[in-house]
Amino acid sequence: MEHSTKRLAVSLVALLATLALFATLSAAAQGVSDTGPPIINPAIDEAAYLRVVGNALGHRARRRLSEADFIRMSREPGTIVLDARSRAKFDELHVAGAINLSFPDIAVESLARALPDKDARILIYCNNNFSGAEGAFPSKLPSASLNLPTYVALYDYGYRNVYELGPLIDVEASEIAFTGWAARAR
Known about the structure:
The structure is a single chain. The protein is of the alpha/beta class. It has two domains: 3-34 and 44-59, no CATH class; 64-185, 3-Layer(aba) Sandwich (Oxidized Rhodanese, domain 1). The protein is built from seven helices and nine strands, in the order H-H-E-H-E-H-E-E-H-E-E-H-E-E-E-H. The chain is globular, with a radius of gyration of 18 Å.
């Protein structure tokens, strides 16, 4: 088993254990007894979500890009750069040419409008890819990085030609072009 595959397996086990612990602690904190009948909501499928997370993270492991590859691929015809941060953070500073679809707004209809071709190449990035611009790219916990749920959501909706900017890059030293009101103020 390759080192990266082992790391992925360990990460998945840690994720599942964390989710189980969170569910247990959440129920305990709310005084919820596990002796009652389960609460069923057909619009929420935890088991399917966990399967998708595992599949998506396996797919993602082979699709992380260096800064140079991200720049090169972003310039190729038909490539879409997607920023899933809030509209306010996007307006402040974003990768030039990116479109914004805030993560909470990712849904069937919004994806059909913003990304109608599920085979189009999509490049994603998030707060945790950039340092030196804390207002526009506030740090998140590594486990809460927006790249992870964005990649999983796109994968779940059928987008398989997704790539992710991998490294943490200083905005001031980056070769990536940025735009937004903070870029104009510099």
